[in-house]
Specification:
alpha+beta; Heat Shock Protein 90; 5-stranded antiparallel β-sheet; 5-stranded mixed β-sheet
Length: 480
C-alpha cells in the first residue's frame, strides 16, 4: 500500500486528478450497474414466479389418475406445455403429469414442505431438472390424497417448473451491456478528468513558469495577471505570489539603496581619515615633523572621524536587525521613565551649556530595552545638536506621551516628510556630525513597540518630537 501511495504521489497533478475522477466514476457506475442488474433480476424472477403461480392454479382433474398410475415417464397429457410438471408424494415419489423432457430434482426441503401439508403456502426456489436444465421451481402442497377404497393416502404436492435459460440469457446480455457502458463511462470520465485538470491547472502552469523565470533570472518584476473579481484558490495564490515578488523587489531595492547610501556616507570620513593619516606618515618619512599644535589638531580630527565611523557602523547594525525582536522574546516590560532619565543624564553631559528641563512621570511599556534607550538618546541628541548655545530643551513624559521640544531654527515644512528616511539630512545640517540614521532608528523602534512618532514645528520656534507608546502607569502583576 505504501508503494502504491508513493507511486501515486509521484504522478503529475493532472494524472492524479484524472485517476481520481476515473476511480470515482468507476465506483459510481459500478454501484449503479450492480443495482440495475439486481433490480432487473428481481423483476424477471417476479414475472416467472407469477407465471408459475397462474399455472399451478389450473389444477387438472386427472391428478387422482396420475397418482393411481404413478410413473416418472412422460405419457402425453398435454397439460402445462413448455414447463416441467409433476406430483410428488411426501416420501419423494414422483408422478409425471405431462410430456416433460425430464423430472425436476426434489430435495429434502421440498419433501418436508409437502409432508406438512399447508395448502395455503407456495414455495419458490431455483433448481435443476434431471436433464441438467436450470429451472425455477414452485412447490404447492395439496394435502392428503384419497385412495380408491376411500382411505386417506399420503400428502402430495404439485411441483411446477420452467426453464431459466431465457431469463439467464437476458441477465447475461444485460451484464455484458452494463460492463461495456461502464467501461466506456470510466474511460470517458478519465479523459474528461484529464481535460478538466489541464484547463483548471493552466493558471498554475503560468504561476510555475513565473516562479521558474524568477529563479532563473532573479527578475522580481514578473507579475501574473489576475481578474479583479476572481476569488478562487488559484487567483488567491497568484495575488499572493504578486505580493511576494513586489515585497522582495521592494526589499532588494531598499537593500541596494542602503548599500549605496552607506557607501556614500562612509566615503567622506574614510577619505578624510586617509588624508590625515597620509599627512602624519609623510611627516614621519621626510623627517619634518608637524608643529605640535597642528599634530594635536590632526589627531583630534582622526579621533572624531573614527568616532563618527563607529557611530555610523552601529546605526547600520541597528537598521540591519530583523523586525521580529518583539516576537522573538527580546521584548520585556521596562520603565520608560527610567529610560528617559538615563538618556537625560547623557544629554546633559553632551550639552552642558544647555538648560534641560524634565517632567517625567511613571510609565511602563513593553519593548526591547537597549533599542528603546537608543531611540530616546537619538531624540535628545538631535535636540542638543540643533539647540542654540544657552538654549532650553523641554522634556515631558505624561500618560505614555514623550515630548522633546528644542528652541532651535526648526525644520522647514517641505523637509518634514523626509526626516525619518534613511541617510536623509537637511541641507542646513550636513555640516554637522551625524549619519542621517538616527530618526530612522527612532521610527523603527517605536513602531516595533506598537507606538508612533511624529515630528512637527513647535509654537514659538524650534522642533517638537512626540512619541506615543502603549503601556500603563503601573507595572503588570508578575505571573507566578
Amino acid at each position: 500500500m505504501n508503494t502504491v501511495t508513493r507511486r501515486f504521489r509521484a504522478l503529475p497533478i493532472r494524472s492524479r486528478l484524472a485517476l481520481l475522477v476515473a476511480a470515482a466514476v468507476a465506483f459510481a457506475v459500478a454501484a449503479v450497474s450492480v443495482s440495475c442488474w439486481f433490480i432487473v433480476q428481481g423483476k424477471l424472477y417476479g414475472q416467472v414466479d407469477d407465471d408459475l403461480r397462474k399455472a399451478s392454479i389450473r389444477m387438472p382433474g386427472q391428478l387422482q389418475d396420475a397418482l393411481d398410475n404413478c410413473t416418472e415417464t412422460p405419457y402425453g397429457t398435454g397439460l402445462f406445455r413448455n414447463s416441467y410438471s409433476q406430483l410428488v408424494q411426501e416420501d419423494g415419489t414422483v408422478c409425471i403429469l405431462q410430456d416433460s423432457p425430464a423430472t425436476v430434482k426434489v430435495n429434502q426441503a421440498d419433501k418436508d414442505k409437502i409432508k406438512d401439508g399447508n395448502t395455503h403456502d407456495l414455495y419458490f426456489r431455483n433448481g435443476a431438472a434431471r436433464d441438467g436444465t436450470d429451472v425455477r421451481v414452485l412447490i404447492r402442497p395439496l394435502g392428503a390424497t384419497t385412495t380408491a377404497t376411500g382411505e386417506s393416502g399420503p400428502n402430495v404436492g404439485l411441483v411446477v417448473a420452467v426453464s431459466l435459460k431465457s431469463t439467464q440469457e437476458t441477465l447475461n446480455d444485460l451484464a455484458l451491456l452494463l460492463l461495456l457502458v461502464s467501461g466506456v463511462g470510466v474511460i470517458g470520465a478519465g479523459a474528461a478528468g484529464l481535460a478538466v485538470a489541464r484547463a483548471g491547472l493552466r493558471p498554475v502552469d503560468k504561476l510555475t513558469e513565473a516562479v521558474e523565470h524568477v529563479a532563473r533570472t532573479e527578475d522580481l518584476n514578473v507579475r501574473i495577471p489576475v481578474e479583479d473579481d476572481s476569488e478562487d484558490e488559484v487567483a488567491r495564490l497568484s495575488r499572493s505570489f504578486n505580493s511576494m515578488t513586489s515585497a522582495l523587489a521592494s526589499s532588494r531595492d531598499l537593500q541596494q539603496q542602503l548599500i549605496a547610501d552607506a557607501g556614500h556616507e562612509l566615503r567622506t570620513p574614510l577619505t578624510s581619515l586617509r588624508t590625515n593619516i597620509e599627512l602624519l606618515t609623510r611627516s614621519e618619512e621626510t623627517g619634518r615633523p608637524l608643529p605640535e599644535a597642528d599634530r594635536k589638531a590632526l589627531l583630534a580630527s582622526v579621533k572624531a572621524q573614527m568616532t563618527e565611523l563607529a557611530a555610523l557602523i552601529g546605526d547600520l547594525q541597528e537598521l540591519s536587525r530583523p523586525d521580529t525582536d518583539q516576537q522573538s522574546g527580546k521584548a520585556q516590560v521596562i520603565a520608560l521613565h527610567d529610560t528617559v532619565e538615563s538618556a537625560l543624564r547623557r544629554a546633559r553631559l553632551r550639552g552642558p551649556e544647555l538648560t534641560i528641563t524634565a517632567d517625567v512621570r511613571p510609565w511602563y511599556v513593553r519593548a526591547e530595552p537597549s533599542a528603546l534607550e537608543r531611540a530616546v538618546v537619538n531624540i535628545l541628541d538631535n535636540a542638543v545638536k540643533f539647540s542654540p548655545e544657552g538654549g532650553t530643551i523641554e522634556v515631558v513624559l505624561n500618560d505614555g506621551v514623550l515630548t522633546v521640544r528644542d528652541h532651535g531654527s526648526g525644520i522647514p515644512a517641505d523637509e518634514l516628510p523626509h526626516v525619518f528616511d534613511r541617510f536623509w539630512r537637511s541641507p542646513s545640517a550636513r555640516a554637522l556630525p551625524g549619519s542621517g540614521l538616527g530618526l530612522s532608528i527612532v521610527a523603527r523602534t517605536v513602531q516595533q513597540s506598537g507606538g508612533e512618532v511624529t515630528l512637527s514645528p513647535a509654537q514659538g520656534g524650534g522642533t517638537a518630537v512626540t512619541v506615543r507608546l502603549p503601556g500603563a502607569p503601573t507595572p503588570p502583576p508578575e505571573v507566578p
